[in-house]
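lol forgot to send this yesterday, sorry. struct tokens for the thing we talked abt
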């Protein structure tokens, strides 16, 4: 049966308001106070007010712009109502002598009070006792219709308490508020309430709502985590006869030109312990740029290979994958490990050769881009999947990599329903603020490299106005004279990739000319995302080898590029970048022993100076080198979306709670979720369904 939806009903669906509970949770954007009438004599400039007055004059003015001017008087003063668009019916309702209730923002100049396009109705009639909610809406869905729909959804929805029995709520300030009470209040607050406590969401009714939401999120993540604990993975133990000293990981450590930092040792031990278990690891390795995640990944790969299984490493860009590949090959091939390379740009013949190596198991390690998860790629026995810059991959891509563990190799296990999953190690250089890790990443284990390898000199960050480019170029010359290398990153113009490119090309030409020297040749390279992969590779190779002194690029170098001799980074239009992104960029220098600097060139456009927020953000960059601190500020300024990247497509974003302010509620939810799941599994199921069930249905539709 097909039920035709009326237009407003369709609009409701468009807003995701399908179930009663969805309607009940559609919280007002703001409120209007229509509970009383204010005499004009008490009006204040700019105030939103409601008055009752009589029309004393009505005329159409044909000045610069045609408008309807209506003067009203309420006995205490008069006010002119202005309408730039109006119909005959409006003119009729606003005729001389009409007695009206009028609402709008009042402005008082020397010429007396005026209101632009106020709303109006006949005067008289009862005044509401509650504040009037104004809901987020879409075209074709009038407030009045939406209000009615919300109130009836609220009346019908099952809002029975799911966690009344939980002891942990008793000490909370919002504990007296049941879900139904809280929602009824938020939809129709009495006029006594402080609007500020509703606007800043600190009112106990809001707290209750946020607690519910956070608990649902914690419960669902915990459920996912426990679900995974029931799965099987190959335990990656050293072969029984191996002496510890002869283990591959140990041999790799011995061969490395440096000793691990304490953080690298701790994290590697955490990973080794978990890989040895027969349950799939699901771990996020976070570490600031340059903290040395690659070697940790290599050690995990070594454990896997030593246990007789294959390992795959996937990176989001070809440049990054290429770097991993060269590094891992340099480390592992001398120890007798064969590594395969997969990328979209490679020749069919090369690809086929690689696929054969992978299928036969001859290649114990496979490194590449998205090409690694293509259907054609068949592993012999994949047991560890490593994903670099994990937030650049979608849920589907991570799943695809996990599914590369081919159960057909182990038919007996598959038949017994014991198909196994590979262990998963995800890496990120964008440190995730603690609250974010506790909420969106609660289903993962997190390891943190909180220490940089020794011998790094701190990077000095300077804010420089674009008008002083010449000085910056002078500085570049000085660096080159000392045999150092320089990055110049061009602006990010989100709307237009071709503008980005034009700008980078121009800058490249300008710098080439400015740095030209008759006797000392200086090579200035250009790198951007539209270049054919082979060309990119060639440019990167020249820069890595130190033959190219200056690299002008769009943000393609953002992640992972490692050239220790580069000691100066210039970021053009720094004000357009996110903080975490700037931090990542800056991390491209300061990788060697030389003193390094980062120049953030900013432009104020036509304005005399940089805006307040932009200035504060750039100052934060100059003040701190701590990626976590920067991430925390970024979360405050821009919300969680930026951090979650592709991950948010899989997880519903929090609608009510705010991770930068609701830390206490988040702590409460995190502690309560396991207790609730253990003690009241049925209530927990209902709670999750109430809060997240609609999202799932919505996605299916
Ligand atoms: P990231 O965490 O940003 O991926 P990398 O793994 O690229 O960092 O490491 C940055 C640089 O530091 C590389 O040149 C790497 O070889 C080097 N490195 C890693 N660990 C150490 C260490 N313990 N001591 C000295 N250098 C190290
Ligand atoms: Mg890296």
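and heres what i got for the seq, position by position
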């Amino acid at each position: 049966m097909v039920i035709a939806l009326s237009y407003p009903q369709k609009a409701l669906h468009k807003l995701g308001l399908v179930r009663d509970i969805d309607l009940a949770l559609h919280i007002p954007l703001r409120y209007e106070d229509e509970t009383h009438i204010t005499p004009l004599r008490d009006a204040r400039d700019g105030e939103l007010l409601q008055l009752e007055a009589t029309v004393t004059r009505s005329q159409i003015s044909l000045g610069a712009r045609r408008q309807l001017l209506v003067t009203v008087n309420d006995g205490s003063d008069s006010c002119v109502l202005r309408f730039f668009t109006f119909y005959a019916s409006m003119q009729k309702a606003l005729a001389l002598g009409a007695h009206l209730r009028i609402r709008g923002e009042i402005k008082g100049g020397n010429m007396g009070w005026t209101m632009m396009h106020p709303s109006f109705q006949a005067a008289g009639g009862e005044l509401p006792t509650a504040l009037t909610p104004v809901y987020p809406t879409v075209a074709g869905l009038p407030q009045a219709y939406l209000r009615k729909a919300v109130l009836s959804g609220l009346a019908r929805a099952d809002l029975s308490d799911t966690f009344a029995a939980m002891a942990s709520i008793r000490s909370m300030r919002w504990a007296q508020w049941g879900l139904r009470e809280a929602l009824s209040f938020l939809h129709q607050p009495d006029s006594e309430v402080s609007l500020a406590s509703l606007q800043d969401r600190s009112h106990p009714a809001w707290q209750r709502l946020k607690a519910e939401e956070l608990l649902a999120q914690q419960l669902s993540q915990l459920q996912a985590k426990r679900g995974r604990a029931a799965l099987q993975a190959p335990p990656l133990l050293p072969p029984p006869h191996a002496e510890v000293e002869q283990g591959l990981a140990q041999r790799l450590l011995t061969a490395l030109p440096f000793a691990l930092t304490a953080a690298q040792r701790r994290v590697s031990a955490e990973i080794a312990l978990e890989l040895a278990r027969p349950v799939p690891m699901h771990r996020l390795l976070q570490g600031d740029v340059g903290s040395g995640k690659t070697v940790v990944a290599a050690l995990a790969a070594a454990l896997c290979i030593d246990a007789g299984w294959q390992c795959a490493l996937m990176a989001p860009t070809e440049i990054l994958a290429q770097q991993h590949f060269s590094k891992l090959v340099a480390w592992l091939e001398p120890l007798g490990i064969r590594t395969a390379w997969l990328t979209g740009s490679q020749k069919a013949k090369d690809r086929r050769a690689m696929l054969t190596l992978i299928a036969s198991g001859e290649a114990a390690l496979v490194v590449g881009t998205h090409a690694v998860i293509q259907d054609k790629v068949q592993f012999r026995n994949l047991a560890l999947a490593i994903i670099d810059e994990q937030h650049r991959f979608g849920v589907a891509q991570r799943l695809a990599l996990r599914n590369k563990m081919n159960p057909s190799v182990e038919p007996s296990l598959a038949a017994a329903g014991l198909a196994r999953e590979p262990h998963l190690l995800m890496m990120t250089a964008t440190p995730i603020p603690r609250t974010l890790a506790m909420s969106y990443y609660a289903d993962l284990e997190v390891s943190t490299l909180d220490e940089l390898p020794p011998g790094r000199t701190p990077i000095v960050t300077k804010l420089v106005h674009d008008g002083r480019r010449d000085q910056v170029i002078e500085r570049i010359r000085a660096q080159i004279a000392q045999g150092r290398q320089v990055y110049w990153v061009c602006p990010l113009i989100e709307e237009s990739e071709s503008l980005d490119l034009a700008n980078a090309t121009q800058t490249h030409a300008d710098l080439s000319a400015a740095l030209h020297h008759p006797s000392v040749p200086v090579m200035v390279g250009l790198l951007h995302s539209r270049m054919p992969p082979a060309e990119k590779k060639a440019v990167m190779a020249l820069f890595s080898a130190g033959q190219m002194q200056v690299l002008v690029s769009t943000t393609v170098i953002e992640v992972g590029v490692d050239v220790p001799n580069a000691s100066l980074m210039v970021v053009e239009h720094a004000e357009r970048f996110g903080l975490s992104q700037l931090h990542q960029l800056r991390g491209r220098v300061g990788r060697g022993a030389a003193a390094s600097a980062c120049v953030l060139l900013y432009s104020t456009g036509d304005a005399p100076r940089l805006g307040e927020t932009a200035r504060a953000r750039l100052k934060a960059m100059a003040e701190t080198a701590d990626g976590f601190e920067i991430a925390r500020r970024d979360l405050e300024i821009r919300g969680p979306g930026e951090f979650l990247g592709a991950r948010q497509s899989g997880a519903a974003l929090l609608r009510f709670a705010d991770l930068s302010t609701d830390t206490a509620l988040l702590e409460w939810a995190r502690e309560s979720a396991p207790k609730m799941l253990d003690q009241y599994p049925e209530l927990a199921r209902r709670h999750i369904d109430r809060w997240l069930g609609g999202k799932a249905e919505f996605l299916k539709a």
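Residues 293-294, 429, 560 surround magnesium ion (ligand 2) (CB under 6 Å). anyway ping me if u want another try
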